[in-house]
Amino acid sequence: MNMQEDLKKYSNFLQKIRTFFNDKNVLEVQTPALLNAPATDVYIDSLRVDLNQEIDLEKTQYLHTSPELEMKKLLANGSGDIYQICSVFRDNEQGSQNTNEFTMLEYYRLNFDIHQLMNDIAQLLKTLGVDSQVTKLSYAQAFFEYGDIDILNTDFATLKVIAKAHGLSTDFEWIEDLQILLFTHLIEPKLQALSLCFIYDYPVMQSALARVEGQVAHRFELYMNGIEIANGYDELRHADEYKAIFEQETAKRTTLKKYTPDLNKDYLEAIQLSLPSCAGVAIGMGRLFSQID
Amino acid sequence: MANYSTSQFKNGLKLMLDGNPCSIINNEIRKPGKGQASNKVKLKDLITGKTLEKTFKSGESVEGADVMELDMQYLYNDGSEWSFMDPDTFEQYMINDSSMDDVRGYLVEQDMCVVTLWNDNPISVTPPNHVILEVVDTDPGLKGDTAGTGGKPATMNTGVVVQVPLFISIGEKVKVDTRTNEYAGRS
User: Fold this and answer.
1) Is pLDDT at A76 greater than 80 in this prediction?
2) Cβ atoms < 10 Å from Cβ of B88
3) Which of A59, B11, B14, B79 is within CB 3.0–4.6 Å of B65 for a Cys-Cys bond?
4) Interaxial angle between packed helices A175-182 and A156-165, expressed in degrees from 0 to 180 and rounded to the nearest 10
């Protein structure tokens, strides 16, 4: 295929996505990419930008790692359903599937739970020509089926024994990091046989910004042929919940000797208001595009 | 010996694992969206020759192995030990006969080969990719078959058995690829 055909194909891909959202009255938005505070996620690092050095108006800002918080400000202010396609930037990325800049599709649907959002994504994929059978497995089912591990009820020490038996590192501070390593190396390879697979309901320790119910957080990830494509949440709604998560994350970053964001800068402003009940997802456009055909 | 962090991992790097020196043959990094990066590493145990797989968390460090690969000349073997010489220092190294199983059939006196030293002790020998061996036993050649369409086993002066074309006869010298144990032409 020549370059022009590639460009046309990608343009057509963008067009179909925009038509899909337009037909559902989901509004396209743009939010700032240059922010005052870096991301709080423990393992996602913001790129720092030192501005205006030659005109004596020096300040430090950060490129967004995802448009999530800025879009949540819009949601909290009554935007209704919204989506955005934008470049995002992450420092310290490595591996063949990762780059420091990539294009993300982020979207939020009001009054959706994660199952409705997963169905919505399956519909979107259908309009993009992906018509394969959809497999849905809870995180716990996936571990039972492919790893013979009761992941929700296995303690840190036992997981370390299992990891060791599989030649995996056991040098971890927190159980969730080991759960993620086990998932990456024991479960993910098995997902390669499935063209379209949603994994949902993650252990509470991996809740991130998703709503928790009992032993699980209502989060999901989409895998296409074993490649991680999307990450979605039943979103937390209240300022105090966000504050608690940001504090947990920055505390972990401190332990790991990574930069720690000043929570007073952008975050508290972002979460002053309550979010409407909604579910949101981030989709890696490059990875998705490479899975289509 | 220095420690190596996962960010320094690359093919050929020698690490100590479970008490044995190992060499990295493949290093794959995986960074989940929300999680920490990890390195899935395939290594060859330089003592047992076995391949193993280990996964490290990104940033973890592992003790390096003091392994050196030196070009040496194979001198002789006395049945129990094989003798090699570093042509720069004239220093001689002996390797036990039992460690020579995989390569004994390709070593010809005076040939240069690569000797792997761990803590200054030789642990393995890699013969040159091609060696010249002499056929000491094979079925009589078929007259007129010069195209080499078929093949037959031939025993070499070093004891190794190589499939050779039908026209090769006893006493001839042939070139053998030591990586595949294949005939690579008449010498």
Assistant:
1) yes
2) 9
3) B14
4) 30
Q: Nearest by CB to A231, which of B7, B33, B53?
A: B33
Alpha-carbon distance values, A231 to A124, B36, B52, B113 (Å): 15, 15, 33, 53
| A97 pLDDT tier (thresholds 50, 70, 90) | confident
What does pTM read for this prediction? Answer: 0.82
A170 close contact with B: CB closer than 8 A: no
Nearest-Cα residue of chain A relative to residue B28: A95
Instruction: Summarize pLDDT for A268-277 with one digit per residue, the tens.
Output: 666 676 899 9
User: pLDDT at position A271, please?
Assistant: 61
How many Å lie between the alpha carbon of B49 and the closest alpha carbon of chain A?
18
State the Cα–Cα distance between residues A276 and A81, nearest whole angstrom.
Answer: 10
Rounded to 10°, the helix A114-127/A3-23 angle is 140
Whether A91 and chain B come into contact, CB under 8 Å, resolves to no
**What is the least distance, in Å, from the CA of A171 to any CA of chain B?**
7
Question: What are the pLDDT digits (tens) for B156-178?
Answer: 999 999 999 988 999 999 999 99
- Mutation for testing the A interface, residue in B8, B34, B54, B61 having most A CBs under 10 Å: B34
Which residue, chain included where needed, has tokens 């004596």?
A56
For residue B160, the distance in angstroms to the closest alpha carbon of chain A comes to 37
pLDDT above 80 for B150? no
Q: How far apart are CA B160 and CA B108, in angstroms?
A: 12
- DSSP state letter for A284: E
Q: Is A30 exposed, middle or buried (0-12, 13-18, 19+ CB in 10 A)?
A: exposed
Taking CA atoms, A248 is separated from A39, A207, A245, A253, A260, in Å, by 13, 12, 5, 9, 11
Residues A114, A279 contacting (CB under 8 angstroms) = yes
Nearest to B31 among A41, A95, A206 (CB): A95
Mutate to test the interface with B, among A40, A65, A92, A168 (most CBs of B within 10 A): A168
- Supply A192's token pair: 């390669």
Percentage of chain A beyond pLDDT 90 is 85
CA distances from A166 to A12, A160, A185, A270 (A): 44, 10, 9, 43
Contact in structure between B12 and B24 (CB atoms under 8 Å): yes
| Preferred mutation among A191, A228, A229, A287 to probe B, highest tally of B CBs within 10 A | A228
Q: Is A171 on the interface with B (CB under 8 A)?
A: yes
